[in-house]
Amino acid sequence: MQADMVEPLREIRDGYLMSLNLGTPAQVIQVYLDTGSDLTWVPCGNLTFDCIDCDDFRSSSSSSSFRVNSAFSPSYSSSALRDSCLSQFCSNVHSSDNPYDPCIVAGCSLATSIKGTCARPCPSFAYTYGAGGIVTGSLSRDTIRLHGTNANVIREVPRFTFGCVGSTYHEPIGIAGFGRGPLSIPSQLGFLHKGFSHCFLGFKYANNPNFSSPLVVGDAALSSKETMQYTPMLQSSMYPNYYYTGLEGVTVGNADRIQVPTILREFDSQGNGGFLIDSGTTYTHFPDPLFTQILTAIQLEMTSYARANDMESRTGFHLCYKVPVFPNEEHAPVFPPITFHFLNNVSLTLPSSNCFYAMSAPLNSTVVKCLLFRSVEDDNDEGSKNDGPAGVYGSFQQQNIQVVYDLENQRIGFQPMDCASASASQGIMAHKG
After folding, report:
1. Which residue ranges make up each domain of the chain?
2. Alpha-carbon span 409 to 416, nearest angstrom
3. Which of 29, 34, 304, 432 could potentially form a cystine with 280 if both were Cys, beta carbons 3.0 to 4.6 Å apart?
4. Nearest-angstrom CA–CA distance, 89 and 87
5. Which superkingdom is the protein from (predicted)?
């Protein structure tokens, strides 16, 4: 029976970080939690790691050059080794259905490839992301150390497979892949038939090292909760490693429910469609005309407030409003509640701060808040085809909601929660290493 693991998550501007303890002795590397990909990778080489066009993709970058805070150095680890071209993981990272391909590329003869006697390392790879990011590097194996439900218990997993990345495009920080593919952390650690959960801190805790919330993997993540609502987990034939749900409607305020296109709860013959749950995407994305319908419904509810058109032009967000500043957020102007309706009669009303966020400091007792939803078309080139998910439920809108990925029963659970308070009551603190 696999022991559960609990790792603290810290928030930065556009995602959630967990610490990877890799190598012997351990080197601690901060990486993004990404439920929308499989490969776990870390920057390798403090002086040689190169991130191309990363100025706009780094949380606190103020200069034209980017340097990661920490990178993994295989030469300093006595347990580090390159993965073999014969390994399943090598075929996976090269997206090859033919197990002989990597060894042939590595220079092995057909005879040694078939016999499984080729000793060459896995060739360098290029791994791409849906938003256009690319990472290149080599596949490595080393010891990873994980915390149990008791923070003092450390579990060592030898020969964990990950990418040792030397250069990237638009990907400045490493990634912990939590998808369902063979390369992912849940898969390598044997948790694909169990599950995991997370409860993302509110954005006000961004970059605050004193607050963290738990990423729980294993049986502890699936303990029954009376208030948890579960919706079926859908599976795409083309993209089987992603976590999809089915969205049936969206309600804004007291207006009638907006019916969504069927592609948000089913897949076409090519496997495109569904509503993707993705911690690696910051903002929730909807397709048009649904996105426009949501904007229209919000505008009808917000006629008492002036639009901030200049902020909309600067930020690219579609709806920004000038609203009064209140000392207590609970007594702030009432933005219309937004509710997602999923399959199985699951309704999730988002906290107001998950939808509208202050884009600047208050001025004359007024602050500008913008709706942090985006259109799927916003991130597509003109004329490009909308392959993949029909919509995405991003991490910003998952704040203060416990999300349970019940892989055993193929369902996803939602429960609104004050994640900071819940973590404090459970004694969750950031591990120092």
Report:
1. 5-83+122-215, 224-399
2. 21
3. 34
4. 5
5. Eukaryota
Name the nearest CA neighbour of 349 among 264, 256, 277, 253: 253
Query: What span, in angstroms and rounded, lies between the C-alpha atoms of 36 and 384?
Result: 21
User: What burial class does residue 412 get, using C-beta atoms within 10 Å of its C-beta: 0-12 exposed, 13-18 middle, 19+ buried?
Assistant: buried
**DSSP for residue 186:** H
Output the 3-class SS for 53-77: CCHHHCCCCCCCCCCCCCCECHHHC
Strand bridging mode 229-232 / 15-22: unpaired
- Residue written as tokens 């990950």? 162
Cα–Cα distances in Å, from 360 out to 117, 208, 302, 314, 367?
Answer: 61, 19, 20, 12, 7
Residue 398 gets which letter from DSSP? G
| Per-chain mean pLDDT for the chain | 88
Question: Where would I find the beta strands (DSSP E) of 350-395?
Answer: 356-358, 366-371, 373-375, 391-393
Can you name the CATH fold of 5-83+122-215?
A: Cathepsin D, subunit A; domain 1 (2.40.70)
Cα(393)–Cα(340) distance, rounded to whole angstroms? 10
Amino acid at 104: I
Residues 38/183, Cβ–Cβ less than 8 Å? yes
Q: Per residue in 335-394, pLDDT tens?
A: 999 999 999 999 999 988 899 999 988 888 899 999 999 999 876 654 445 688 999 999
The CB density around residue 237, as the number of other CB atoms within 10 Å, is 9
At 316, give phi and psi (nearest 5°): 85, -5
Strand, helix or coil at 90? helix
Burial class of residue 105 in the structure, from the number of CB atoms within 10 Å of its CB (0-12 exposed, 13-18 middle, 19+ buried): middle
Which pLDDT score is estimated for 124? 95
Whole-angstrom distance, CA of residue 127 vs CA of residue 49: 16
pTM of the complete model: 0.91
Cβ distance 291 to 304 under 8 Å? no
Domains 5-83+122-215 and 224-399 alike in fold: yes
* Residues contacting 91, CB < 8 A, separation 6+: 97, 98, 99, 101, 102
* Cα 182 to Cα 186: distance, rounded to the nearest angstrom: 9
**Residue 237 carries which DSSP code?**
S
Helix (H, G, I), strand (E, B) or coil at 217: strand
Alpha helices in 116-261 (DSSP H): 185-188
CATH topology of domain 224-399: Cathepsin D, subunit A; domain 1 (2.40.70)
